[in-house]
Amino acid sequence: MPDAIDLPRRTPDRFLSIYLNDQLALGIAWRELARRSSKANQGTEAGIALTQVASDIAEDIDTFQRIMRSLGIRRNPVKSMATALMERAGRFKPNGRLTSYSPLSRFEELEFLILGVESKKQLWDTLDRLAGLGSRLPGIDFAQLIDRAKAQRALLEPHRVRAGADAFPA
Questions:
Q1: DSSP annotation string for the chain
Q2: Which residues contact 36 (CB under 8 A, 6 or more apart)?
Q3: pLDDT tens profile 36-63
Q4: 6-20, 133-147, 151-165: lowest mean pLDDT where?
Q5: Nearest of 123, 30, 28, 20 to residue 75 by alpha carbon
Q6: Which of 68, 97, 139, 164 is the least crowded, having the fewest Cβ atoms under 10 Å away?
Q7: How far is 124 from 130, CA to CA, in rounded Å?
């Protein structure tokens, strides 16, 4: 039986609001990671791919915020800021070198970005089918967003494999 204290706070979009704010915060972290990695790999093929993915993630965040506005869901700035700060703190993680970018840094950044892209693909599907937003927001093309996430994964994967070979030479 539900706790009586919880009943007044329940609204149809209460959990959706929490979920969307959590996902927005993660998207901001992925965007910042992609931008940082793009700069660290500037002038390389991986850098070009990362620049494209960073731009795509920024567009996805804009779309995501449009979805939230359309639903009347307010952004939780504390969650977004906390996640961005955690991403920045992650930059101080040891990478096998004291003062420079390492092959392990490149590999881990690409791995984390691919995890983010895969979770974003699932997010778009969740919003479309499970949360029913495909019918509530006919102006959002969730299938196209899923396809873009798949393209991002395909763009990053060869660079992840190369970075793994560089980080872990046989």
A1: ---TTTGGG--TTHHHHHHHHHHHHHHHHHHHHHHHHHHHTTTSHHHHHHHHHHHHHHHHHHHHHHHHHHHTPPP-HHHHHHHHHHHHHGGGS--SSSSS--HHHHHHHHHHHHHHHHHHHHHHHIIIIIS-HHHH-TTS-HHHHHHHHHHHHHHHHHHHHHHHHHHS--
A2: 91, 109
A3: 999 999 999 999 999 999 999 999 999 9
A4: 6-20
A5: 20
A6: 139
A7: 10
pLDDT in tens, 118-143: 999 999 999 999 999 999 999 999 99
Residue type, 2: P
Token duo for residue 165: 């070979």
The two tokens of residue 157 are 């994967």
